[in-house]
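Long-time lurker, first post. I've been practising inverse folding by hand and with some scripts of my own, and I keep getting stuck on stretches where the structure tokens seem ambiguous. Below is the full token string for one chain I'm working on. Before anyone asks, I'm not after the true native sequence, just a reasonable design that respects the backbone. If someone could post their per-position residues I'd love to compare against what I wrote down in my notebook.
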């Protein structure tokens, strides 16, 4: 697929996916949504892509949410049964947001507005780097729109029940400092430096052996909602991957025994 609303760039093992509608504050319309579905699966399935960085074009907005001018055209549901089926089957209305099948690391470089579906997009990441001018909020409250791309699911997992309830109910917008304080972002950098820092971190992660990273991320994601014993069993099951990799864990153990702190991984630890 050729992208008109996105930029997809891979350097070595790091992919940068840029939401590229700066005149619309990188809001997601139907065309971008279709392109996002393709781009995320492209990253998922590319054996040479290890880490994804998501960001928005320009310094004013990461993603301002759903393009309401485009959404205003969707005035009729039409065949309700077909609509209901599509809700269950599609990957998301504002991106690849209803799937949980990507176990590679994802970093968000948040520059400017991350509102509504833009906040939901940031929540797709494992690590969020915010520029000092970043702002977050469930601003769809004012337009009577529900969180349909993971807001009510991922936000409580990231910031906790009480903070999530406040943000979702009030629609209050918060700045980078408060976002850092409540655990919504991991790090704040000067304006204009979020993408640079995110790429730097992505390169560091891409240099690590990838097998254990993906197994541990999958264990965390699959364990959400299970009992403690069930989660421990899932974690134990994931250790099977150690014995099935082309680069066995024994390579790392042998390197440690030999005092080699930089073992060579012929297959990137996979």
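-- Answer (accepted) --
I ran through it position by position. Result:
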């Amino acid at each position: 697929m050729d992208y008109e609303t996105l930029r997809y760039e891979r350097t070595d093992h790091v992919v940068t996916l840029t939401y590229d509608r700066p005149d619309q504050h990188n809001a997601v319309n139907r065309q971008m949504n279709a392109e996002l579905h393709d781009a995320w699966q492209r990253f998922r399935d590319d054996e040479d892509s290890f880490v994804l960085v998501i960001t928005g074009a320009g310094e004013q907005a990461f993603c301002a949410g759903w393009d309401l001018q485009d959404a205003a055209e969707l005035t009729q549901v039409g065949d309700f049964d077909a609509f209901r089926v599509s809700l269950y089957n599609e990957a998301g209305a504002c991106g690849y947001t209803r799937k949980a099948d990507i176990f590679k690391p994802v970093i968000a470089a948040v520059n400017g507005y991350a509102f509504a579906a833009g906040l939901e997009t940031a929540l797709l990441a494992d690590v969020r780097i915010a520029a000092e001018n970043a702002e977050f909020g469930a601003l769809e409250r004012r337009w009577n729109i529900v969180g349909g791309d993971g807001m009510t699911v991922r936000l409580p997992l990231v910031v906790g029940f009480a903070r999530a309830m406040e943000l979702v109910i009030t629609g209050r917008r918060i700045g980078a400092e408060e976002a850092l304080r409540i655990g919504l972002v991991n790090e704040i950098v000067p304006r204009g430096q979020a993408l640079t820092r995110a790429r730097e971190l992505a390169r560091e992660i891409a240099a690590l052996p990838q097998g254990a990273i993906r197994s541990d991320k999958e264990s965390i994601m699959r364990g959400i909602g299970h009992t403690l014993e069930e989660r421990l069993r899932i974690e134990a099951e994931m250790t099977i991957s150690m014995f099935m990799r082309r680069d066995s864990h024994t390579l790392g153990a042998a390197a440690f025994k030999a005092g080699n702190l930089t073992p060579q991984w012929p297959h990137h630890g996979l």
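A couple of notes from the structure itself: The longest strand covers residues 6-11. Residues 11 and 49 are 9 Å apart (CA to CA). Happy to go over any region you disagree with.
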